[in-house]
């Protein structure tokens, strides 16, 4: 989706395992279309297709789907083989259960478990054997398994809660796209909690659809955002329809059949505001267009509703630490 971008934190975190293994990451970054200088700017962001490409290149360079974070490699093709092992299961519970057994055959990797807890199912990952200081791999595994399960049954699994056994990080605001649910840090386990009813659902995929799925997965599972059902995601989808003539907060509230006061309160509860949502959407669309040559910077400014290019320049530098021209030069 062009309306979402990925914080440079995740690029730095993804590279850490390869760097520890002594891999020269500069060619990998350039092949992914990411200029190394972008990583020096904490506010910089990359497009989803760049991040997806980065993941694929890291797996190729290391021949390791754990990207250097495990005690042993998980050779390329392991995830695909697991998918082939589960695709003929009748229900999601059978498929996820078989998947956890499959990865349990590799004792030095992260242990994945699926358990029932009353009306909920809990998918947990034990990262005690990982060398993963940024928790990049364990979070990636949660995202991949959630989105794989959703793909298998042909509908998005609505999460009840995501828990993490470590302190809330500085980039916690980014987690809305990864784990669109309530999030709890400093918890006993790293897990996803979702209604148990999903486990009984039949698999709607087969060998034919799996072949297409594996052409881009699991890299695109990580790169593709999941806004879920949150209010902020609903508003972003509404605003993204026409960036030249965005509705104001009152019009959005009317569309959602709630009062403006209630809308403001709900956004505060989700850690956001209407202005912040508009700024983030403009930022992400700007990065999308700057990564392509179809539009001039002035045209991009006009498309995003800025009255003059100088206002766009100031806003973009505030968002990313770079001017639009500098960002486009980095992308070239």
Number of strands: 7
The biggest beta sheet reads: 5 strands, mixed
Residue share in helix? 40-55%
Query: How many separate helices?
Result: 16
User: Can you list the strand order of the major beta sheet?
Assistant: 3-4-7-5-6
Weakly predicted, low-confidence segments: none
Multimerization state: single chain
* Helix-strand topology string: EHHEHHHEEHEHEEHHHHHHHHH
Strand content: 5-15%
Query: What would the principal axes of the Cα set say about the shape?
Result: globular
Q: What is the average per-residue confidence, as pLDDT, rounded to a whole number?
A: 89
The class by helix and strand makeup works out as alpha+beta
End-to-end CA span: 21 Å
Gyration radius from CA atoms, angstroms: 21 Å
Number of domains: 3
Secondary-structure blueprint of this entry?
Elements: E1 6-7, H1 8-20, H2 26-31, E2 45-46, H3 48-62, H4 78-86, H5 92-104, E3 111-117, E4 120-126, H6 136-153, E5 161-163, H7 175-178, E6 182-184, E7 190-195, H8 207-213, H9 219-223, H10 231-239, H11 249-255, H12 260-269, H13 274-290, H14 297-303, H15 309-320, H16 324-331
Parallel strand pairs: 5-6
Antiparallel strand pairs: 1-2, 3-4, 4-7, 5-7
Helix pairs in contact: 1-3, 4-5, 13-15
Defining traits:
332 residues, alpha+beta, 5-stranded mixed sheet, two-stranded antiparallel sheet, globular, Homeodomain-like_sf, transcription regulation, Tscrpt_reg_AraC-type_HTH
Q: How is this structure best described in words?
A:
The protein is built from 16 helices and 7 strands. The protein has 332 residues and is of the alpha+beta class. The chain folds into 3 domains: 6-74, no CATH class; 78-200; 231-330, Arc Repressor Mutant, subunit A. The radius of gyration is 21 Å and the shape is globular. InterPro entries: AraC-type_N (IPR032687), Homeodomain-like_sf (IPR009057), HTH_AraC (IPR018060), Tscrpt_reg_AraC-type_HTH (IPR020449). Residues 229-330 form the HTH araC/xylS-type domain. Keywords: DNA-binding, Transcription, Transcription regulation. It holds the Pfam family HTH_18.
